[in-house]
Amino acid sequence: MTERPSQRLSALGLVLPPLRTPAGHFAFARRHGDLLFLSGQGPGTPDMASPTGRVGADVSVEDAYGHARLVTLNLLAAAAAELGSIDRISCIIKVLGFVNAVPDFDRHPAVINGCSDLLLEIFGPDAGRHARSAIGAGSLPGQITVEIEMIVAIADEPR
User: Fold this and answer.
1) Tens digit of pLDDT for each residue in 4-16?
2) Which of 33, 44, 61, 93 is 20 to 30 Å apart from 150, CA to CA?
3) In a domain, 36, yes or no
4) Residue 22 above 90 pLDDT?
5) String of b and e for 98-132 (b: at least 16 CB within 10 Å)?
6) Could you tell me the residue range of the domain that residue 113 belongs to?
7) Phi then psi for 11, rounded to 5 degrees?
8) Which residues contact 29 (CB under 8 A, 6 or more apart)?
């Protein structure tokens, strides 16, 4: 892929949302060496209430998949705020996804695929493929449907 990630994001018709104010005493991003650790984000944006509910009860897998895509945009917005551009991300290292689901729900990976698929669309198969865990949660803050955190590698120059 010769286009930069920011160009692919734009070609998909997507824009990074402005960051919300952190809901606690933490940073959205913390850099250590060439790694950027991104705090867990939910699917809301400053101009949109976060989707709530439990997957497998009142939220479908398809809707939660879309919520995971929104979370990904929030994560990338936090990375861009720290790095100046998502083009400074050399590759996605790790994704950890939590799904607010009913106890017998077992399709957590299908929900978190919303994040993984979007990362592959934006960063391509080499830089976008990542290690991942998809975990069910009995609840999440504010009863949001999905929370995801991410670790990325940083390039010295935009790619």
Assistant:
1) 999 999 999 999 9
2) 61
3) yes
4) no
5) bbbbeeebebbebbbbbbbebbbbbbbeebbebeb
6) 28-154
7) -65, -30
8) 36, 37, 38, 39, 78, 79, 81, 82
Look at the chain and report how many structural domains it folds into. 1
- CATH code where residue 77 lies: 3.30.1330.40
Three-state secondary structure call for residue 156: coil
Q: Which of 10-24, 87-101, 140-154 has the lowest mean pLDDT?
A: 10-24
Q: Of how many residues is the chain composed? A: 159
Tokens of residue 84, six digits: 């100046």
Q: Give the span between the Cα atoms of 46 and 71, in whole angstroms.
A: 13
Is the pLDDT at 129 greater than 90? The verdict is yes
* Rounded distance between C-alpha atoms, residue 33 and residue 53, angstroms: 38
